[in-house]
Amino acid sequence: MLNRTLHYMIVARILLLGAVLCATWPGGVAMAEDTTVTIMAQYRQDVPVIYDGAAADEPTLDPQIASDSASIGAIEGLYEGLTDFDPSNNQIIPRMAVSWETSNDGLTWTFNLRNDVMWYQYNPPTDTAQAMRPVVAGDFQYAIQRLCDPRLGSFYGTVFATVLAGCEVVNRTPIDEVTDDLVFGETLQVFVPDDQTLVIKLQYAASYFLSMSAMWSLFPVYREAIEQYGDEWTAPGNMVTHGPFFLKESIRGVGKIYVRNPDFPADLRYGGNIDIVRLTLIEDGGTVFALYLDKQLDKAGIPEAEYEQVLQNPAFQNQIHLQFTTSVYYYGFSYIAPFDNVHIRRAFSAVIDREAFIAQNRSGRDLPMIHFTPPGIAHAPPINEVGVGFDPEYARAEMAAAGYPNCEGFPPIQIVTFQGAESWGAFLAAAAEEYLGCDGTLFEIDALEFATLLDAIHPNTTPDNRPEIWTLGWAADYPDAHNYVHDVLACTVANQMPRICTEVDDLIEKATGETDYLVRNDLYRQIEEAFFGYGGEFPIAPVLLGIAHYLAQPWLTGPFETRVFGLSGIDPFSIDTAAKLAARGQ
């Protein structure tokens, strides 16, 4: 995820969504495909269960476009996928697909779908939802076709293009040559034998494809609404969704309200009791923390300035939650002068004392990383056994090899960070000054809203408008090394550097199609070495593996420690409303 990608203050799938209203169907209603029914919502109790949270504004609610955690978190509450990761153990479980089979060669996957999930168009002013028709296999097919269409400009379209048979042909066709016949014809090898059967053919036997089937990029979308409303199809009132929640209100820069879909199948719910989610859009961690202390929020991160005090305060001991994530934070390098020179990228990575960085900027709470794929992900090399790490002597030699001994003649550099990470930019600038001899005034440090940061480093952003260095992180979309070194760094995806193909991409392609587990282990170790070892390419400088520490009010309960992959909704969580109101003096 620039999220999973690429993510604002990336944690592995932050809590986002919940719901409000419950309804009952009249007895004996049979749903035909051309039948529409309006449901009226009713409160399940006199005092609805409300989750109060803070979030960043999501750039999009389009499943095929989304590539950041704010968008993904919302989307995963509005739609449902083929599979999901169980919130208790992160194992793949059925969702819209009740079962699946693979061919003997591993190239063809057949998903058998349930037939009892409906599309609804929710009307915010009236709190009613109109049932349109059942979700069918053709909706998945249409979504995948959109994903592969280069005219949509999806980052994950370039990722799936290397996996799905025919997707690469469509996705790499010049936009001015793309036709609807190409996109929606039979070039893409995704077929629908009937409404409950989806057949997906792969380019190679990808051992990790089942875990990719849980990704939001494959969520079905309602074609009729997209064709009717165009660019406004995701607006409240226009959206047609089928997931556990509806979007009731969205005021950009202010807040969001999500409400429960009362007809979502009970066996697809995760057991929580929340009826309403009210999200205030706040990007300042200090403000979020203050609201939490005032008991206005149910969950909050711990600001760096407050971290030690919170840990030492007995009042917080039962509210602190720890989660080992898959989030690797890094400095990214744009391949523009002077960082189009590999020696410069090596030098700037080697001046980062990661342990000092974590001590100064993260209160010592994380683990240093000198390669990309973290522990717990299949085929990851042992942590910090591959890579250069902190080596000032090597860094100075690389600067000299680049033609800038003691940083003489080095040009001004812009470092952009996501909001709250300004100190990260200052740390790197200070390291370059101390170990490379650079003048500290060469570095301009800017903190950007997350959506603005993503725009600044988009592959299509011109060199004149790109920062030389930026901060970001990556959390796993699925638990395989392919999701890191390929989906973020490969030349065949819309990478943010953007880098061109080198010999390491040949290794990535070889690892992609390899089926032997031990051989894949060795290949991905070679890939990490080619990127981050002595003589490596260093498209990014990995810094740390995030360990999430956050606070949850005593009245909020749920699978805090195990919610790593998949659905980021609040459906598994519960609130003791009486305790919450009492704490607020209500």
Description:
- It is a single chain.
- The protein is α+β, with helices and mostly antiparallel strands and 586 residues long.
- It is built from 18 helices and 23 strands.
- Strands 15, 16, 17, 18, 19, 20 and 21 form a 7-stranded mixed sheet that branches. It has a 4-stranded antiparallel sheet with strand order 1-8-7-11, with no helix packed on it. A 4-stranded mixed sheet has the order 2-14-13-12, covered by helices on one side.
- Residues 2-45 have low confidence and may be disordered.
Task: State the main characteristics.
D-Maltodextrin-Binding Protein, domain 2; single chain; Dipeptide-binding Protein, domain 3; 4-stranded antiparallel beta sheet; 23 strands; 3 domains; Dipeptide-binding Protein, domain 1; alpha+beta
Write the layout of secondary structure elements.
Layout: E1 37-40, E2 50-55, H1 69-78, E3 83-85, E4 92-94, E5 97-102, E6 108-113, E7 118-123, E8 128-134, H2 137-148, H3 155-160, H4 167-171, H5 180-184, E9 190-194, E10 197-201, H6 209-212, H7 223-229, E11 240-241, E12 245-251, E13 255-260, E14 276-281, H8 285-293, E15 299-301, H9 307-312, E16 320-333, H10 342-350, H11 354-361, E17 367-368, H12 392-401, E18 413-418, H13 422-436, E19 443-448, H14 450-456, E20 469-474, H15 482-486, H16 503-513, H17 517-532, E21 540-552, E22 556-557, E23 574-575, H18 577-583
Parallel strand pairs: 2-14, 18-19, 18-20
Antiparallel strand pairs: 1-8, 3-4, 5-6, 6-10, 7-8, 7-11, 9-10, 12-13, 13-14, 15-21, 16-20, 16-21, 17-21, 22-23
